[in-house]
């Protein structure tokens, strides 16, 4: 059974004025603070910083089986480049669309609790919907620039900061003994 959403939570939206009249609709704009770091929306390398403003621009539509929530979510991102490890910032806007099933509807009766969110006490909690949409839109390997050269594998310096002729003399370990022998003579 679904848990009761906290109506005071900024993620919880009321469906009361929609009633159960299919076709009834209302728009909602809400700025929601991002959760703290221990509940961060994102991946290890990039995500929404704690306390940042997440803008919800959604439309709640009453349909036969529930309330369809659709719209956009916008949020700032912070992370680190997967090549050079520099800090990076970005902004993300994603579309969301989720059906919240009415209690005792055919959809409610024929789906598992974890398959589809539910309308509970005339409220919908969009936090998990937003979290899922944002995480799925994030790059797995974020880059500070598309052509980031990364780090030198030998010295660990940023390649962008090194001269074009930067290099390291590396010798195949199988030939190292021969080099030592020729340099001793």
- The proportion of strand residues reads 25-35%
H/E topology pattern = EEEEEEHEHH
Number of strands: 7
Helix/strand/pairing class, anyone?
alpha+beta
Number of helices: 3
User: What does the largest sheet look like?
Assistant: 5 strands, antiparallel
- Outline: elongated
Regions with pLDDT < 50 over 5+ consecutive residues? none
Give the mean pLDDT: 88
How far the N terminus sits from the C terminus, by CA atoms, comes to 83 Å
Q: Count up the domains.
A: 2
The percentage helix is 10-25%
Topology, please?
Elements (H helix, E strand, L loop, with lengths): L11 E3 L10 E9 L12 E2 L5 E11 L2 E15 L6 E15 L4 H5 L12 E3 L1 H11 L35 H12 L1
Antiparallel strand pairs: 1-7, 2-4, 3-5, 4-5, 5-6
What would your notes on this structure say?
The protein contains three helices and seven strands; from the N terminus they run ββββββαβαα. The longest helix has 12 residues. With 185 residues, it is α+β, with helices and mostly antiparallel strands. The strands form two sheets. Strands 2, 3, 4, 5 and 6 form a five-stranded antiparallel β-sheet that branches. The chain is 15% helix and 31% strand. The chain has two domains: 137 residues, no CATH class; 37 residues, no CATH class.
